[in-house]
């Protein structure tokens, strides 16, 4: 028995477990990165490289 995709709730696929698709895996990754780097307002349209300006 497979768990549903944590992103959209569809049945997970073996290839992309625990997600239903690579897209949902990407969404989860973006969320993880957003949580870590706190990107304001961004979901998956922009790609902001993590800034390291503390060594300025
Ligand atoms: Zn999904």
UniProtKB/TrEMBL annotation:
Region (Disordered): 37-56
Cofactor(s) needed: Zn(2+)
Cofactor note (record): Binds 1 zinc ion.
Bias type Acidic residues, positions: 43-56
Family matches, as InterPro entries: DNA_gyrase_inhibitor_YacG, Znf_NHR/GATA
Keyword flag Metal-binding: yes
Binding locations of Zn(2+): 5, 8, 20, 24
Keywords tagged on the record: Metal-binding, Zinc
GO molecular function annotations of the record: DNA topoisomerase type II (double strand cut, ATP-hydrolyzing) inhibitor activity; zinc ion binding
One Pfam family it belongs to: YacG
Keyword Disulfide bond tagged: no
Gene Ontology BP, a term: regulation of DNA-templated transcription
Membership in a protein family: Belongs to the DNA gyrase inhibitor YacG family.
Primary role: Inhibits all the catalytic activities of DNA gyrase by preventing its interaction with DNA. Acts by binding directly to the C-terminal domain of GyrB, which probably disrupts DNA binding by the gyrase.
Summary of subunit composition and partner proteins: Interacts with GyrB.
The protein's name: DNA gyrase inhibitor YacG
